[in-house]
Amino acid sequence: MTKKKSQAANEDQTIETNKKSVSPALKPQKEKPVVAKQVKSSKEEEDLLLDSDSGADSDYDGDSLSGSLNSDDFDSDIFDSEDDASQRETEGGDGEASEDELHGHEGSDDDEVDSENGEEEDGSDDEGSEEREVAEESDSSEDEVAPRNTVGDVPLEWYKDEKHIGYDITGKKITKKEKQDKLDSFLATMDDSKNWRKIYDEYNDEEVELTKEESKLIRRMLKGEAPHADFDPYAPYVDWFKWDDAIHPLSSAPEPKRRFIPSKWEAKKVVKYVRAIRKGLIKFDKPEEEPNVYLLWGDDSTSDQKSKHLTYIPPPKLKLPGSVTYLFICFSSRIPFSEVFNLYNLAFPGHEESYNPSLEYIPTEEEIAAYELMFEEDRPKFIPKRFTSLRSIPAYENALKELFARCLDLYLCPRVRKKRINIDPESLKPKLPSRKDLRPYPNSCYLEYKGHTGAVTSLSPDCSGQWIASGSADGSVRIWEVETGRCLKVWQFKEPVKCVAWNPLPDFPILAVAMGQDLVILNTELGTDEEQQKIEELLRLGSLPELDESAAAIVSWHQDETFGGIKIRHFKNVSFVDWHPRGDYLSAVMSAGETRGVVIHQLSVHKTQRLPIKMRGLPVCTLFHPHHRGMFIIATKKNVRVFNLQKKELPIKKLETGLREISSMAIHPGGDNLIVGSKEGKMCWFDMDLSSKPYKTLKNHPKDITNVAFHRSYPLFASCSEDSTAYVFHGKVYSDLNENPLIVPLEILRGHSTSSSNRGVLDCKFHPRQPWLFTAGADSVIKLYCH
């Protein structure tokens, strides 16, 4: 017996098997049953019958509802544990069922069906044991049970009116099972905890219970993953080619000639197409030309047309007229009286635009006469009138004019759509450095120089910074010691002093004083004995050179007997004086001199030269360039012009200030930047290498700016005004031409009292070496501001 069993097992391993279809939806292909020819003993038949009887007592119900497969049923393995527990409870109260019996119970589905149909095959015991062995050796759960129905590809719909569904392997009919009542099947499914794992096999007319492995496989397929967990979809690429020993190319054939010459076939094809196009055989669809017509004041429906043209701007709405004007328009337009009468509520006598206003709204004849004397802009647009009834209201006299103006406004008035951008105002402010980082700069009054009885009109420190000269309207010129405030020397003149200027050379401590028509060169007697001898020789007039006719008509040189200096008399009052950086030339400005308003004096040869250029406008002030020898800057009341005196040509550059009237001017020690003050409180910064228009325009003072000044060594500049204040700025000029100057307001200096003439601060000058500022006020006081 054992020998026969081993032979049967060896034969079963060589038998080819097909897969069994569990349901038509999941496994559409049918499998052929395994046929095993072997002799079975009666003992094995009895064992198989016992197994079939035990399977008949199971929870299987052939007529129960078919199970449904959902992705939610396979999300966790919690059902497996519950099924195992419930199965142990239902198998028996003693709990002694073994795993072998459970496996035998699960694998006896085929025998259960045969026992229920009353059809039992010969040698079923041996076949059942062999099928179990084949199922254990197979790698697929579908081979555990062989298919019973052998109808092949015959559709099951042909058997719907029959009592059977097909034939088994022996040719016997497989009768249909009686369908269970829905209520009974529902109760059976509620009692069975494994119902979720069962599916109905329509082909074999039976229910099949899925195993854990099959449920896991279905769960992975529903998630879109590989059915087998061991499969790696991202396995590393295995390069089968051995590149290490590849010393020869894959193909050593030479490149064919056709790869280097154009294709003749393509050329013939192109020629063929060209000829067809020229003969008209091939025609192209021409794009339809859209009419270039659109509504100027169209509605929203023409938005696609408006996008191709200018930005659509709706027409302006008419100004709503008053009640009387509205009634005028209604009468002039011949609107029915009934409609006008409905508008009576608009014309109630409660305001001045009513047709019957109250008496207090109606102006008198004197008021009407006063209206006629007013300007048209200030005259009221509407004068109330009173009418006793609606019939007495005349036609609107301006109806035709307003309609005509409306038509002109629609198609002649240009309009621009301005886009508003929501920007934080704080973000538009320039990021300026802190004032603490820009120290030192003058911020407090340190010393006052008192002694003048009139307004101090001009200041000038010497090049060493030890002395400062001042001129006043009382006709006095004083020299002060800067650190102590002691008045060293005083000169008294008969006329008020307009301007004082100290010579820039340290070896020649001389002073130029302008008053009236005279320009006096004074010896301050502050130098050494050798310097005094040179100065006395310089200020002694010997044989004067002959002047040109044009220069002789303007100035004349004289020896000043009173103060031992030189007096140069001009034909007009001198308002401004400026020294050349070398100290030999001196420019004088006569505001009323017009074209002859600017002359240059040469002190070493006692000679006067008239500018070889034509003046345009009244001159205000002049400056010599600090580095360029022949460059001369002249400021008129409107513009600033830069000349080259060596070339004697037209101005090199014209700076357009845009100011009402220029009052003062100062040049940066570098020579490329210029500041201009005006009598409207504005100050312009010019970068002469950049543009002829202002780089920055500063509006700080509410009144006229009297003077502006640059510091020689520190990045500071200042302005003073008639409002009795002086503003100090940080103005740094970079050597890199691509970087703009940095301008930062630092301090507002106050302290001068407003005089009766409301002239405030008349002049300001920086100390040549320290960050100090001198201010001259109309209150006859000079103040020194330090850091």
From TrEMBL:
The keyword Thylakoid does not apply. Residues 1-157 are annotated as: Disordered. Belongs to the WD repeat BOP1/ERB1 family. GO terms for molecular function: ribonucleoprotein complex binding. Its main location: nucleus. It is found in: Nucleus, Nucleolus; Nucleus, Nucleoplasm. Residues 7-16 have a biased composition (Polar residues). Signal peptide: none annotated. It comes from the Eukaryota. One of its GO terms (biological process) is maturation of LSU-rRNA from tricistronic rRNA transcript (SSU-rRNA, 5.8S rRNA, LSU-rRNA). It comes from Eruca vesicaria subsp. sativa. PANTHER family: RIBOSOME BIOGENESIS PROTEIN BOP1, RIBOSOME BIOGENESIS PROTEIN BOP1 BLOCK OF PROLIFERATION 1 PROTEIN. This is Ribosome biogenesis protein BOP1 homolog. Required for maturation of ribosomal RNAs and formation of the large ribosomal subunit. Keywords: Nucleus, Repeat, Ribosome biogenesis, rRNA processing, WD repeat.
